[in-house]
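Input set for joint prediction.
Command: fold jointly, output tokens.
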Amino acid sequence: MYNNKSKSNERSNRVILNSLPFKKIIVLLFFSMLMFPFIVLILWAFSKHWPAGAILPVEWGLRGWHYMLNPQNKMLGVIGVSFGLSLSVTLLAIIISIPAGKALGLHDFPLKNLVEILVLAPIIIPPITVGMGIHIAFIKYGLADTFLGVMLIHLVVVLPYGIRIFASVYKAMGRKWDEQSRALKAKGWQRFLYVSLPMLRPGLIASGILMFNVSFSQYFLTFLIGGGKIVTLPLVLFPYVNSGDRVVGSVISLVFIMVALVFMIVVEKAITDGRQQPQYYYL
Amino acid sequence: MAQVKLQNIDKYYSGERIIKSLSFVINHGEFVALVGPSGCGKTTTLKVLAGLIKPEHGEILLDGVDITSIPAEKRDIVMVFQDHLLFPHLSVGENIAFGLKMLGIPRKVREDKVRVLLEMVQLPGIEKRYPAQLSGGQQQRVALARALALEPKVLLLDEPLSNLDPGLRDGMRELISRLHKELNMTTLFVTHDQDEAMLLADKIAVMLGGELVQYDTPFNLYNKPISREVANMFGICNYMQGFLYNGVFHVQGKKYFVPHLTIQGNVEAYIRAEHIDLVSSQRGCLLGVVRERKFICGHSMFKVDTESGDVTALVKNHLDVSPGSRVNLKIDWERVWFQSRGDGSEGLCDNSHIERSSKYKHHAGDGQAACG
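tokens >
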């Protein structure tokens, strides 16, 4: 009797868990938890006066946006530098990590494990230690305080993600496609262009978006190597959040999110082939 | 003309010898099956031929020209892989035309060829579809069409039927067989299914542990297997060790008359299960008790305990004998193959009734003489 009852209880529990309204509630809950800070950010960005204790801003205004668009503040230039830096870092990192990922994913060579650990090292070791050491070398070679220097240091941080992703994509792909296209008389570059590259698509999307965002939100290393000469969005954002000008801080944060979001959507739309069902996901 | 010749091919994988001095010849237009258990080096052999793997030793000759060091993309040999490997990002038409595009053949010519090939593999008008929209059988056909598009001198097929359902398998087998007859292309195909090899091939190469054990026609592989392993591969076989003297086969105190044989010495008899019958008279028969009975497509397989050990017999289905009954087994000695034992240098023993292929003519002569 007891057993029967517990079984039916279990079943009814499962029914509740699987029921559509319950699922909807859970989804909504998570969605609102994610969106709540975002809504606060939007409110701050359009407020003029928001005294403590008030649920909503008392007065609305566009001061932050005026600040953003005012040529004197050179904010558009900063966005340009930020975007250009992260885009070039991402492209360079992809060019490097495709062959590196292929080597790690498909080939066996002596000390492969050591190389794998070294590749991951910039993620494991705190960037401050990496940055400090490299800073000294960069000063020596005149790379400190330059765009190129900042780009190189971003590459160090970003590359592990790219190499990891492409290594796993190549591992999943195996050698069979390469062998098949060789058997169908494709030369080296044809094999890469017509077979490997289309198959790397999911990896391109994942690594592109990830590496762009890691580079785009980099604060410390840009500050250290750029020495304040290379000004990116996080560098501008930090003082405002710190000094308590929440209106301008919120506007910059929103712009920051927008740029990253637009990049993500564009990349996804540009690379995804609508005709083809994705075979596997990475990450 | 396309004749393929492998000479003393050796291939090592991490110190282990996977292929051991493999040599054989495939003549123009021949359809050869490479048969063996998994891991015996069949697929490796195919990849060596295709140029995807470089052998450590040996030579591959295509029409007498050494192609061992020519890379895969420049060889006039195309391989179809086991899991068809259609490019998922290309349509069926683009897949079939892939090889032609790589060679720089103009679009118009490619499109015409795709249409002809799709008709050839009985899938007209599906150029625009994508591989994911096709069934397994269709995918395999498209993969075949893609290989044929290049009109290679030699076609290599790696287990073309193993991923298909039994029903589709028959259709695909017929298609491959028909295409081979139409195009007369030198073809080597790998399979672990002996029946498939028997059904399709002109000649079968049996590989075991990286070595070529026997390379012969299906007829000879069945009737004159070189070893127990080969005999077991192509059908059910019983073995009896005994002594041949003056046309009498002595085995464990029993005598069987085999007047058609002139050879003497220690031999092993390879007795096919289907050459044993259940009879009522006891004369010259083997007595035993039925242990097990199973049905195999139109036949019954009896496992019988006899005074000469376990014997498996394959008889017509209408015999209703239940396990436990005593039976008399009559062996058709005329059709038994004898293999000499001992040093083994003697090679094959002879039996006269089997028609010889030209290769064994001189043996046949001996046999007939003995009979007469």
